[in-house]
Amino acid sequence: MGVVRKTQSVSLVLEAFKADSKAISVIDLVDRFNDKINKTTVYRVLDRLEDDGVLHSFLGVNGIKWYAPCKDCSEHKHSDVHPHFQCTDCGKIDCLNVDITIPKLPNREVVGAQVLIQGKCEACCN
Amino acid sequence: MGVVRKTQSVSLVLEAFKADSKAISVIDLVDRFNDKINKTTVYRVLDRLEDDGVLHSFLGVNGIKWYAPCKDCSEHKHSDVHPHFQCTDCGKIDCLNVDITIPKLPNREVVGAQVLIQGKCEACCN
DNA sequence: AGTATATTTGCAACTTAGTTGCATTAATAG
DNA sequence: CTATTAATGCAACTAAGTTGCAAATATACT
Ligand SMILES: [Zn+2]
Ligand SMILES: [Zn+2]
Ligand SMILES: [Zn+2]
Ligand SMILES: [Zn+2]
Known about the structure:
The structure is a homodimer of 126-residue chains.
Chain A: H1 8-19, E1 24-25, H2 26-32, H3 39-51, E2 55-59, E3 65-69, E4 84-87, E5 93-95, E6 109-120, H4 122-125
Parallel strand pairs in A: 4-6
Antiparallel strand pairs in A: 1-3, 2-3, 4-5
The complex binds zinc ion (4 copies).
Chain A binds a DNA duplex (30 and 30 nucleotides) through helix 1, helix 2 and helix 3.
């Protein structure tokens, strides 16, 4: 079950993602709200928002958790699986609106894929 | 700098990868050798073997570290970047000998990609 | 073989990301 | 305005991985 009550914590977190639609790491969010929202609450709010199809999560380099806004998802149906791009210079991550074709694998049943492309982002290329 | 001395720990770790050429998680290795090799040493041996191009590492689901034997790599030149397949049933990971084409991204300089395909492995499909 | 040297190891303590249990707070319904 | 129950804060915990340092051991040299 996802978000049931519109609490202050939920509003604050949603605002953060409305500001720019980039991905934000949990580390960053916990740090950013350290005087407003308890660490545990940040984790739990993100969890609920993901349940509701408002945010989606994935792992960046080093295995830390990131969240980004969903496009057309709903509760229990995350339809926006897409690659992510992490900049090796600034560390920021974007969701990519491109399709990666996963090759057919004999004798295996593919259900999904996590793709993290690495390189220099637009800002860091200049 | 990688492996300089052929120690007992190095031999044990290499044997583990010779047995079957699948990927092995660090967790598994630490556990498997818990009465023979200290946890710290396992991490350090794996580190050195990766430096030497003998093993390569990547992150599985949940961000835990896995290692697998390299094909044609040498010190400081890991040439075998390839997708990995993790079974959602048994959790095991294989290196895949297929190419994934990363689309051209405007205004970005791509240097690599980490691809983790998820699904049912050959063994678990039966 | 015996010894010197530097690499490697084990241990304990630490760091960091994330989780759990429980008492308290606060959002919503009636 | 009150009752109900979701949500929060806190402290303590777990688990993966790291660090510093003294002790052990592999290798080179005599
Ligand atoms: Zn950048
Ligand atoms: Zn995304
Ligand atoms: Zn399987
Ligand atoms: Zn591999």
